[in-house]
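Hey, can you fold this?
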Amino acid sequence: MSNKHPILRERAREMRRNPTEPEKRLWRYLSGAQLGGYKFRRQAVVGNYICDFLCATKALAIEVDGETHAMDSDLKRDQELLRLGIRVLHVTNSEVMNNMDGVLAAILAELDDVDDRWNAGPTPTPPLKERGLRNG
């Protein structure tokens, strides 16, 4: 594990331990690859930022925004994440609390809209005992 951002990693741990109510509710649907089989991490450090939720396979960050939000810093963060290849979908606390079906549909539409970030093909498997390359 890199020590590049130890303060950010510690802050992310604290945020995972003490999520907001909307984050807690949304995580119930995103955890365990429940939404379309897509795996998410919460409070993931990406570059110099912490994303509320990140689907690394699809390079999509989900940000749950409160009622008061700094649009300028959000725009700067979103541009930097985009430069790193991560798209950002913003949903509001109110949407999460009052329209979870709509939030989940929007997230699923974003996920289904793009190819996987890594298109490496099948994962290689190690040879079984007595199979594979032999000497001589």
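Oh, and this one too while you're at it.
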Amino acid sequence: MLTNKVAIVTGGTRGIGLAMVKALLEEGATVVLAGSREETANKAVEGIKAENPDAKVEGIWPDLTKYEDVKACFDKIYEKYGHIDILCNNAGVSARDLIEDTTQEMFEKVIDINVIAVFNCSKAAYEHMMVQKSGCIINTSSMVSQYGQPSGLAYPTSKFAINGLTLSLAREGAKYGIRVNAVAPGVTNTDMVKALPEDMREKLKASLPLGRMGEPEDIANAVVFLASDHASYISGQTIRVDGLATV
């Protein structure tokens, strides 16, 4: 579905982001994955190529919280391929601390990575998409953007912001043929969840009407759909991929 498309995926070295990279590659896209460090980005690329030597994938490692750094990377990608068609803003950090234990510095770190970085990447990609008169931006939100959570308020705050950015940028970009959507994962079987005690994992699983946790591939499949022409009339939406999760 994505042959000849060029996609950038931030936070693409593991978990949901890596699943996005692989799913986009399977549909024919050329994928640039962004990691937090050169080593992690290169390791992810090497792992993908070990599975599929013909995979059209490369790695970058800009500081996503610095616009000029992001812009320089994205400009090089545009110069190399002549277009940027898909941006998946997936990089993020979570938070679990109660407000009395949360410092301003801790709060700002979450906002910097979960919101400022999304703005920087979106702006850098948007500038090229405006010229192309086409493009698709997909942001990773979260189920807590709708439900909140009992601690770590910085995280749901950041994801509420992502929902607002998604809707507003969709309205702004429509005149250029740019679609902007978000996916809101629920409890997903990533390394973070796998590290939880077994009884807690079972309790989480039992709370889900579909009877199972989400897999990274479930989120990635939704991203592929939103990036494809099958979703050409969908924009400004935050789509839950959470197994009908409830608070």
